[in-house]
Design goal:
The chain is mainly alpha-helical. Helix content is 78%, strand content 0%. It has one domain. The protein is globular.
C-alpha cells in the first residue's frame, strides 16, 4: 500500500506540474506503481478538462472554437509541456534523415529546429480540427476528452514493456527497469474498463479504440526500432501526443 501511494505521488511529481513537496526515493516497486498510475493521471487530466469545458459551455457565451482551443491547452499546461518537448525533439531527429545513431545525437540537442516546430504545428492543428468537428457533429464527443488521455498513456506505458530502449541510459531505460508483466495486465484491465465505458457513447468508436491501442504499440515499436534503434523518453512523449491526435481522428470518423 505504501508503494501504491508513493508511486502515485511519483507519477504526479514527474509527469505533471502539480506540486508534490516530498522527496520520493525512486525504488523499483514505486516506479512500477507510477507506471500503473500514469493512465489514471490521464483520466484526472481529462476529468479536469471535461468539467472546465462543460462549465464554460453552460455558464458562459464562449464559442465552441474557444472551448476547443482551451481543451487542447489544459492538458498541455497540466503536464508542463513535457510530451510536446519530446514531440519536437523527435520531429527534428527523424526528419534529419540521418542514421539511427546520428538521429539520437540530434535528439539530444537542446535547440529546436524547423522540423520540430512544423511537427508541433501539424499535430496540434490536426487535433484542433478533429476535436472541433467531432464535438460540432455530436455534443457527446466531449466525453472523449476524459478517456483519450488515458488511452494514449496506456500505449506509451505499453511501449516501455514491449519495445527495446535505444540507449542504456535515459528516461525510457530508467522506467523499463521497473516494468513487469503485472503492469501489462493492469493496462489490459484499464483498457477493458474504458472500452466498456466508451460503448455508452459510441460502439463504433469503442471498437476502433480497442484496435488502435492494440495495433499502436506494435506499429510504433516497429517504427522506433527502424528510425532510432528503439525508444527513448522523447519518442514516448512524441507517441503520446501523436496518439491523442490520432484517437481524435477516430472519434471524428466514427462518432
Amino acid at each position: 500500500m505504501k508503494n501504491f501511494y508513493f508511486g502515485g505521488l511519483f507519477a504526479l511529481q514527474f509527469f505533471s506540474i502539480i506540486p508534490v513537496h516530498l522527496e520520493i526515493e525512486p525504488g523499483l516497486s514505486r516506479v512500477r506503481w507510477s507506471l500503473r498510475w500514469l493512465p489514471l493521471l490521464g483520466v484526472a487530466f481529462g476529468a479536469a478538462n471535461v468539467v472546465f469545458f462543460l462549465m464554460m459551455h453552460t455558464y458562459t457565451e464562449m464559442s465552441l472554437l474557444s472551448l476547443v482551443l482551451l481543451s487542447i491547452l489544459i492538458p498541455i499546461v497540466l503536464s508542463g509541456g513535457l510530451h510536446l518537448d519530446g514531440l519536437m525533439d523527435t520531429g527534428d531527429a527523424y526528419f534529419s534523415y540521418q542514421t539511427p545513431e546520428k538521429r539520437l545525437d540530434v535528439m539530444k540537442d537542446p535547440r529546436t529546429g524547423a522540423f520540430g516546430v512544423m511537427v508541433l504545428f501539424l499535430v496540434l492543428t490536426l487535433r484542433f480540427i478533429f476535436i472541433y468537428e467531432a464535438v460540432r457533429l455530436e455534443e457527446a464527443a466531449v466525453w472523449f476528452l476524459l478517456v483519450i488521455p488515458c488511452f494514449a498513456r496506456i500505449v506509451m506505458v505499453g511501449l516501455l514493456g514491449f519495445a527495446p530502449s535505444a540507449k542504456t541510459s535515459g528516461l525510457s531505460s530508467f522506467f523499463q527497469k521497473s516494468y513487469k508483466a503485472s503492469v501489462t495486465w493492469w493496462l489490459v484491465g484499464t483498457s477493458i474498463f474504458l472500452i466498456i465505458g466508451c460503448f455508452f457513447i459510441s460502439i463504433g468508436v469503442s471498437i476502433a479504440f480497442c484496435l488502435a491501442v492494440c495495433a499502436g504499440v506494435w506499429i510504433i515499436k516497429s517504427w522506433a526500432v527502424k528510425a532510432f534503434n528503439g525508444i527513448t523518453g522523447d519518442v514516448c512523449g512524441a507517441m503520446l501526443e501523436g496518439m491523442v491526435t490520432f484517437l481524435w481522428l477516430i472519434v471524428w470518423i466514427f462518432i
